[in-house]
Structures are given as structure tokens and as C-alpha cells.
Amino acid sequence: GAGVSQSPSNKVTEKGKDVELRCDPISGHTALYWYRQSLGQGLEFLIYFQGNSAPDKSGLPSDRFSAERTGGSVSTLTIQRTQQEDSAVYLCASSLVGQGASKTEAFFGQGTRLTVV
Amino acid sequence: LAKTTQPISMDSYEGQEVNITCSHNNIATNDYITWYQQFPSQGPRFIIQGYKTKVTNEVASLFIPADRKSSTLSLPRVSLSDTAVYYCLGENYGGSQGNLIFGKGTKLSVKP
Fold it and tell me: Is pLDDT larger for residue B112 or for residue A102?
């Protein structure tokens, strides 16, 4: 089976433009996470979706950032009016939580490298 | 969610055993201790998870004392390819898992 897929793998955009990053989680995984990782830094939590519950948006750095998860599957992270400090690798992960889960292992995608010029 | 503390970096040589200790003083009763490994330009990947005592798999061993306030990831006979960043975190088992908060991790450098 396929793992977590993210697209695009690389994105260069001009300052002030909007960008959309896509995440296809592993089929059947109820939990989906977005993180941001700047060069040489740790993972910064952004947002968490779990089933039909309201998402945990506590990590979003500003109102320019938003995310949706449609039909409990694909997720899109949108950054409006991009700034140079938004340049980072954006990582998505999914996990199977709840009934039947033997362990809460999160599977990560390869990330989208965003460069704002 | 458990707040974790790890050494920022560690150096080792090929063939040595490496032990990375993580402190998690406020770990919750329902939290499992989980370790992830991240290579450059890749997303983290799960290594091992445990609740108490010792867990061993083909990659590593995880030692957790009775009070669960710390844990130690043990990598036997490391090679150059084990150079990576290692993260420990507390994960809620099954049920209503919340978000996964990663700390800064431990950067392990294995030298020839």
C-alpha cells in the first residue's frame, strides 16, 4: 500500500502569493497532522485532524495559515500572502487511532519544500 | 501532553552502543513513550514504542523505569547510517489521541 503522499515536493513562490500544499494520507487513517520544519530545526506542530472532531488549530502561526480535510481523507494546507519566513519544509503525517490500533505510529510523507522569494 | 527533554547532540563511533535518554516528568498514565528517527531531507519514521520495562525490536531497545519519568533508547553497534535526529514523545494510546508534539530531538553523529 502507498504511504503518505505530499505534493508538490518543491514549491517556489513569490512573496505575497498564496500557496496550497496537498497531503494524501494512508487510506483508513483517521488522524492527520501538519508540521513545519525550518532548516536545522525541530518539527513545529501546525494543525491536527481526528475523524469528525473539530481540528486542533493551536499551532497555526497566523491567520494566513489554514487547512482543510475533505471527506476525512485528503488535506490541503493553504498559506495566504506568503512571507519569506514561511520558507520551510511542510510535513504531513497520518495515523490510525482508536479501535484496532496496536500502537499510535504516525507515518510521515516526504514533505513539501516551500521557498518564498 | 508530556513535555520531553533530550540532549541536543551526541557523538559516537561505528560499532559502539549508543544510549539516548529522554526525560518526561509529567507523562500521563495513558501515554506511551515513542521514539522517531529523522534522516536529512526525510520525514520522521517510527522506531519503537513502549509503556513500561523493556521493549526490543530489530532496530533498537527501549528501557523505561518503573516511575516512567524517563526512557532510554539504545542503539546497538551503530553504523554511519544511524546518523540522524532522534525524537522522543509521549503518545496517547488508542482512544482520543491528541496532537503529537515533537521536541528538538537529539542529533546523533556517528563517525568512522
Answer: B112
B40 touches A: beta carbon within 8 Å: no
Pick the residue of A97, A107, A113 with the most B CBs within 10 A to test the interface with B by mutation. A97
Nine-digit cell string for A56: 486542533
Residue pLDDT, tens place only, A10-32: 999 999 999 999 999 999 898 89
- Interface check for B72 against chain A (CB to CB < 8 A): the answer is no
Q: Which three cell numbers stand for residue B43?
A: 520525514
CB proximity list for B81: less than 8 A, separation 6 or greater: B110
Identify all chain A residues contacting B62, using CB atoms and an 8 Å cutoff: none
| Cell (9 digits) for B15 | 560499532
Amino acid in position A115: T
How many Å apart are CA B79 and CA A61, to the nearest integer? 38
Tens digits of residue pLDDT in B53-109: 899 999 999 999 999 999 999 999 999 999 999 999 876 654 445 667 788 899 999
**A77 contact partners, CB below 8 Å, separation of at least 6:** A20, A21, A23, A34, A46, A47, A65, A66, A67, A90, A92
B7 within 8 A of B106, measured Cβ to Cβ: yes
Nearest-Cα distance to chain B for A49, in Å, is 8
Task: Name the residue with higher pLDDT: B28 or A80.
Answer: A80
